Amino acid sequence: MVQVIAATVNLLDSKFLFASLLWGSIGFGYFIYGKKQQSTMPMIGGLVMVAISYLVGSWFWMSLICLALMFAIYWLLKRGY
To answer: Would the pLDDT of 44 be above 80?
Structure first.
């Protein structure tokens, strides 16, 4: 008999809920900022950040990805994109 072990995500974990709320809120802020300034890069980055807060199941990886995305948005805006 083959036994399949699936990794489960505890969606009621306090770390996961806090990280999801934090990065989703920051992403929404980026989106609103990009929309008001008519700048595409923060608007797209904000949408991606909100999507990451829904799609990634680990608070640690969610935080690392969102921090890297924030750095990428900053770097691209400094480069003139």
So the answer is: yes
Can you spell out the DSSP letters for 9-67? --TT-HHHHHHHHHHHHHHHHHHHHHHHHT-HHHHHHHHHHHHHHHH---HHHHHHHHH
Residue 11, pLDDT > 70, answer no
Find tokens 């036994």 and name the residue: 3
The separation between the first and the last C-alpha atoms of the chain, rounded to the nearest angstrom, is: 55
**Boundaries of domain holding 52:** 14-78
| Number of domains present in the structure of the chain | 1
